[in-house]
Amino acid sequence: MTGLLKFEIGKQIKALRTAKKLTQTQLGEMAELPYTYIGGIERGERNLSIDTLEKIILALDVSPIEVFRFIEINGQQPENNDKDEELYNFMALMSSNSYEDIKFFHKLAADILKHTTKK
């Protein structure tokens, strides 16, 4: 099972990048890394040094914990499907907001779902 951590970190970096509507090229430029290297990281093919990871975190303007926050749904790792990809993207998008904003958006989403979900 070796390489699982770099795969999950890469997947999370991709989710954070796409939530911020950045291309691999744009992130690479911001982090001063080749876009091909960013792609290799996102696919779990590249080993990251702490310095490289720091460059990416700073370029994404996220807390370091966000790179290591892997979603678990009902105690299970997510599958590779469109729904889980959207959940990753949504969490990455929300992660850069304040606590108050996150609470607001959560309440808003709950209210919308309450009124649109059929019983």
From TrEMBL:
Every HTH cro/C1-type domain range: 13-67
Keywords tagged on the record: DNA-binding
One of the Pfam families matching this protein, by short name: HTH_3
Keyword DNA-binding in annotation: yes
InterPro entries for this protein: Cro/C1-type_HTH, Lambda_DNA-bd_dom_sf, TransReg_Diox_bact_type
PROSITE patterns registered for this protein in UniProt: HTH_CROC1 (PS50943)
The keyword DNA-binding appears for this protein: yes
PANTHER family: DNA-BINDING PHAGE PROTEIN, HTH-TYPE TRANSCRIPTIONAL REGULATOR
Name under which the protein is recorded: HTH cro/C1-type domain-containing protein
Source organism (scientific name): Paenibacillus allorhizoplanae
